Amino acid sequence: MSNHNRVIQVAVPRPLHSVYDYSVPTDMPLPSVGCRVHVPFGRTTTLGICVNNEVANPHSRLKPIQALVDAENSEPAVSAELLDLAKWMSAYYHHPLGEVLATVLPAAARRGAEFAITPADSWQVSKTEYANPRAPRQQQLLDFLMTNPHCTGADIIAAGFSRALLNKLVDLSVVVRSDPLAAADAKESHLPASAEQKLAIEQISHALGRFQTLLLEGVTGSGKTEIYLQSIANVLTQGGQALVLVPEIALTPQTLARFQRRFPKTGMLHSALTDNERLQTWLKSRQGDFDIILGTRSAIFTPCKNLRLIIVDEEHDSSYKQQDGLRYSARDLAAKRAQALSIPLLLGSATPSLESLYNAKRGRYQHLRLLNRAGGAQMPDYHVIDMRNENVLHGLSHQLINVIRRHLDAAGQVLIYLNRRGFAPTLLCQSCGWQSHCSDCDAKLTLHQSPPQMICHHCNLRFPVPQQCDNCGHTALLPIGLGTQRAEESARQLFKDTPVYRIDRDTTRSNKQLNAQLEQINRGEPCVLVGTQMLAKGHHFPNVTLVAVINADAGLLSPDFRAPERTAQLIVQVAGRAGRADRPGEVWIQSYQPDNPLLTTLIESGYSGFANAELASRETAQLPPTTPMALIRAESENPQLAKNFLLRCKVQSESLGMETDISIMGPVPAPIGRMAKRHRFQLMLIATRRSALHHCLKALNQTSAPSKLRWSIDVDPYDAM
Ligand code: ADP
Ligand code: ZN
Ligand code: ZN
To answer: For 292, 394, 594, 604, which has the most beta carbons within 10 A of its beta carbon?
Structure first.
């Protein structure tokens, strides 16, 4: 064989250059494209992916690959479909292909783990006629397994039998492994769909077999999940699989259980699994054992044997955008994947992103709407409290306190929403105005209680609570503003004898804790719930009749261009937790800017009206989604280094002569100018055309950076902060 047939291109997980040529020793089979190979790299060895095995490289001194990880004739680790997706991501996000592939593969696969499905520890009787009168215990175990098929080894031991006895019967082939997936039956059937739901299910079913994105906009509680479930049923009858993405915070055991009751062969992928558990689910999806994969952001990379439908629930959710490293959007990748596979993508939300609404308006997405709540529940009424002439007690206005009393007296539950953890966001010197700051960030410290400490919400550093002012030595330090801990304390003082529950990241570290709290709350006795956005997502509180939004102003005034959209989504989502058929809900919003047009539009015209107005103002301001954007961020302990680097980027892009297509703003300090000791700057690129933006980013990606500088390109940034 000539040398030219024995050279392959390998993508390695390293920054900058990502594909390298290697020769394949004559005693080794030529790896297929997508296979994992061990290659020498620098002074070490690394695992790479063969991305091309027909390379013409006449160079005779190429390093040889060391070993194949995926055996000859076995399925490559990265399928052709996912390799194409990775190549597209590498070009679109301007990120090295080797690092993209490292993100696409589960961690265990990246480390070279063998692709073997661990057999389930689940057992059944295979020879019912077997009888051994001299071994009565054997007979007892057989009887036990007959009445409890698909029992696990642990169940068998718990019932008083030994492993040895089980092994004996297995050796005799009287007992064999069973497949709990194959055996499980659906425990629940579909609900009779409403007319609105039926229409949506039909439209989705029409789209099966071709690429079409459908945007399902339905108010909270309108029965979107029921539509997902019934659409998935249509896919399964055709022998297909469905991939369902949900926000990080919403993937709870309850969510999984809801799917598994209808479809037992549902697998779950999320960050709390061990690497091996993730790999197992990945393998079972790849070989078609699971019908449905339910997962968070990175589940978009799950290989599927016969994928026919992708669903992204709460498609506006920020957790779909990875905010560091490879800054991809799982929602956008879902569209790419659906297109490549010629299958439909269903995006669902009560508060769709402006990106998706814009696509729906341009006719690129099919817009499906659910205007009514399932089961006839009504939408809540909105009220705004003008805080400018209110007496405030513990952060709550008198008017709000009265409304809360009224609801509690009527045996309703009350939800107080505010997006700040801790006791108070600032500790202020009453004498000179000094505020307690983080040593490593340009940020104020948040006062926390139990235990009392100051915490930086940006870098997580903790400090003792100062006893006196750093500036003037005065001891009168005053907590300013309201956090969830303080709101909880206020509620306890104001509404004595009423249980108060606080739900935020500090009180609710585990799912178990959250479940216990939810169970308690959903017994229905009057209570006050205080919480952050953890409360706004996923959970239903049928007995909540009042939702109070404490500080909507912060979001409306933020310099981030996405802040109004995010705030409106949160208000509508948290409002959607309230009320059911027999108990309509009310939403009261405290604001020092009750005439803010964003707020009044939201209240008068609902989310759709708000979104239309906001979309128009984004268009005028030439911001996404109407105009493509990228951010270049640079950070360093030396501020000049970061700033100069971005200046160089700016000069370089200006030298491309694309002034008519691209405007560059900055470098400016990031809104939090220093974080964890590093100074942060950013450069914003806005383009008239996407192709121009990519041309420019591609040129910038070649810029060499000093070693003490971290920098990144963020295409379609979610967070401009
Ligand atoms: P969403 O996902 O839009 O928030 P869900 O699918 O969770 O809404 O539905 C909200 C509630 O309404 C659930 O308790 C669900 O069981 C119920 N529901 C949904 N569809 C129907 C239906 N067709 N008939 C009766 N109840 C329904
Ligand atoms: Zn002072
Ligand atoms: Zn800090």
So the answer is: 292
